[in-house]
Here is the input.
Amino acid sequence: MADEHDHDHDNHLSETVLRVKALESLLVEKGLVDPAALDAMVDVYENKIGPRNGAKVVAKAWTDPAYKARLMADATAAIAELGYSGAQGEHMVVVENTPTVHNLVVCTLCSCYPWPVLGLPPVWYKSSAYRSRAVIDPRGVLKDFGLTVPDDVAVRVWDSTAEIRYLVLPERPAGTEGLGAEALEALVTRDTMIGTAKVMP
Amino acid sequence: MADEHDHDHDNHLSETVLRVKALESLLVEKGLVDPAALDAMVDVYENKIGPRNGAKVVAKAWTDPAYKARLMADATAAIAELGYSGAQGEHMVVVENTPTVHNLVVCTLCSCYPWPVLGLPPVWYKSSAYRSRAVIDPRGVLKDFGLTVPDDVAVRVWDSTAEIRYLVLPERPAGTEGLGAEALEALVTRDTMIGTAKVMP
Amino acid sequence: MNGVHDMGGMHGFGPVEPEANEPVFHAPWEGRVLALRRALGAWRKWNIDAGRHSIETLPPADYLRLSYYEKWLASAIKLALGAGLITQRELETGKRDPSVPVATPPLTADKVLPAILKGGPTHRETAATPRFAAGQAVRAREINPTGHTRLPRYVRGRRGMIERDHGAHVFPDSNARFLGENPQYLYTVRFSARELWGEAANPGDAVYLDLWEDYLDVA
Amino acid sequence: MNGVHDMGGMHGFGPVEPEANEPVFHAPWEGRVLALRRALGAWRKWNIDAGRHSIETLPPADYLRLSYYEKWLASAIKLALGAGLITQRELETGKRDPSVPVATPPLTADKVLPAILKGGPTHRETAATPRFAAGQAVRAREINPTGHTRLPRYVRGRRGMIERDHGAHVFPDSNARFLGENPQYLYTVRFSARELWGEAANPGDAVYLDLWEDYLDVA
Here is the structure.
């Protein structure tokens, strides 16, 4: 059974590859798309826009109290100060983790995600498992990530139902007082800014 | 695309046939099932138990007021008088269509259906389309069957969430006063006893 | 569980498409699957509620994609494996593990019709008195059990009226988990279509569900 | 629409399975699909809400079975066909219908990054005053639109509290149907987990949704 399904799956995938090629070739022939623009778009999301952007925002907020104040008051503008803006991050809100509050971001209706600061979402974020359970069983979902949130810490789930995009400002770990922004940035992973992980020193 | 899917579907079906054969042969070898019992079970539902049973119940209710009274008071017992009972009809309730009430039976959670009086359910009754829409848009579903229920007729939908099974007693059509039970029975179709059709004279 | 099987009130599945002169089975294998699953059921290793739950817990995409009898086939295999009637290895090889004795006796042909006509009533006598009475206002509980339940999502938290008392019946939520029949009063409850679906619904329309006492609160 | 995409609160999809060192794309075709759909979008024949609705209206079994980029591919084709950018016959033959002139100019490479950095803000100035204010109790409406909506089923009929006012934003329900932007106030609304899921939920937990004025009533 397993083999048979894998085989089906492989066939299916190679068909998909052919269909995408045929579609691109048709759209190019019709003048509807320019292959160089497609290359550029792939390049942007593979190489230019990703979670390192968000990590820079977080590290700056940790080390620059005035920036943090601007970030919490108007995240879109504060994030644009660092050069990050646009598609799927037009209207940003930052939610801060504290010793008593843990935030988690989801989009139950599709897969809305703050692209300018985190890049394209990982497969798990787009999965039915995550989308369905994050709102009804966030603590169970966090356990799937190895994170147990104590009962006296409030879990706040942000369901991205409109064009507001959420970035979690994780807690700065203890013992990092001596580190500068660049060293801190390296500690900040994608998942800590979605809320499925804590930053480890 | 259509061809490719049909082809997949055919492959899938012939695989299913082989899997069923392999399973039956294993279960017979293990002494868990007797092929003659399987034949008997198929024979029961192909030839013995079907909507003609329900039609007899309806025709009798139309022509025998005392029977109708017993049927409305205790459907299980009244239906058993005609020899129909058992699996998926252990606890029967009959709901009556009138000039002001139209009844429709569904099972949103699976496909519960009154087997002793109607036999096995048709594919549409088990479909996601019917199960999902019958409760939120019963009038739209009835239109799919060509039946428009006036706004001043109440639509009552019976969602078979427990082991109670529902049979609709359709309205006896005008102009059938001269007909006996046997002639009436021939007018009663399966769908009229689910509530997706009216009996036509 | 809030599974994809709990589809009352969903959109997007398209029109209902009746088939003219539909046969009882569309191919012989469908009848075999029906018969196999019921014949296996005669070993009484599971009950109807556990059987339903085995279908509800199929992967959701399979649940929507597979036909009714394909789901029955998947469920028969799942149940037989779970109950130890067959092993994974036997299923893969198609051959009986010779170390397991041949079972006996299976359901025989002469017992088939009597078993069908007898069925499996779920009504149980009880010394308890019913908590609700016809005409009483109730509210379906806002519960989200992760196991089997017969309280659909679309009525949870909604106000209805007791229509009829059916006496005590086996409670599926516990029975499906082999935690006992826990018989309790079962009621037909009437919910107005407007209570369930809002102002756009026809004011006279209603949906009736059969709900156990543990699903209901006084409104 | 109450589609299968509206899956908040469902059970049965199994554990969340993060992938270590996940690449941005798992195969080059995924990146091509992302780029193709966005490059087609640059023709402005549809908007983001219509784009989302084209995915929501995929057959439900496909919606659950297909990967994210497979859904994007299906949606790109559906949208391009619907907008007349391509014809069914072109799609089947893979060749341009010579009677249709070649379109020009498409999005060019130099415009890609600027377009991404600009994005498509949905905030709109309005002369209207907001109906609700932070701290106010509201109730999500019990509505069941058959078209696109961003009001998930799991909050309908539930009581929440206005957390924040985001000003007026394009209203997806009308925009997806090309019936206009109908900008209206958008609010973040806080729902306690207990209000949504019952007594079993942690008392301090909450879910926040961004909801438009037309989705809300005074509680």
User: Anything to note?
Assistant: The longest helix of chain C spans residues 68-82.
